[in-house]
Amino acid sequence: MTRHDRYKIHSLGRYDRIRPTSTTYGELAARAGLERAARAAGQACAQNLIAPVVPCHRVLPAAGGKGLKRFGGYYYGPERKEWLLHHEATTR
User: Fold this and answer.
1) Sequence-distant (≥ 6) Cβ neighbours of residue 24 within 8 angstroms
2) What is the pTM of this model?
3) Residues 6 or more apart from 80 whose CB is under 8 A from it?
4) What angle do CA 73, 76, 78 make, to 5 degrees?
5) Is 38 exposed, middle or buried (0-12, 13-18, 19+ CB in 10 A)?
6) Which of 2, 12, 34, 49 is deepest in the core (most CB within 10 A)?
7) d(CA 41, CA 8)
8) Residue 22 neighbours by CB distance under 10 Å
9) Which of these is catalytic: 9, 18, 37, 56?
10) Tens-digit pLDDT profile for the chain (92 aa)?
11) Is 45 a catalytic residue?
């Protein structure tokens, strides 16, 4: 995975590209034309310094998990990611 590929995935995080509902890292990578780059999509989201302007908090792991791990990584921590998702769900 090159730096350019990560940039391509990260650029998909623009507000108009990430749906108002959640998506998975694999789906985000596939929309970038990199179907096998779910981990790179996760890394790109984890390095997003302008969240929630670029709403990577809506990108979740496909497999889920237990506790806060079910939300995946987030630059500002899984607690903040959980809060943002809950806040968006209750304000719609």
Assistant:
1) 38, 59, 60, 61, 62
2) 0.78
3) 57, 74
4) 45
5) buried
6) 12
7) 9
8) 16
9) 56
10) 777 777 777 666 554 555 678 889 898 888 888 888 888 888 888 888 887 777 888 888 998 777 777 888 888 888 999 999 999 888 76
11) no
For residues 14, 73, 70, 33, the Cα torsion angle rounded to the nearest 10 degrees is: 50
For the chain, domain boundaries: 3-90
Task: Report cis status (omega within 30 of 0) of the bond before 52.
Answer: yes
Asked whether the beta carbons of 12 and 37 are under 8 A apart, the reply is no
Residue 86 CB neighbours (<10 A):
10
Q: Mapping DSSP to helix (H, G, I), strand (E, B) and coil, where does residue 43 land?
A: helix
Query: For 3-90, CATH number?
Result: 1.10.10.10
Backbone angles phi, psi at 38, to 5 degrees: -60, -40
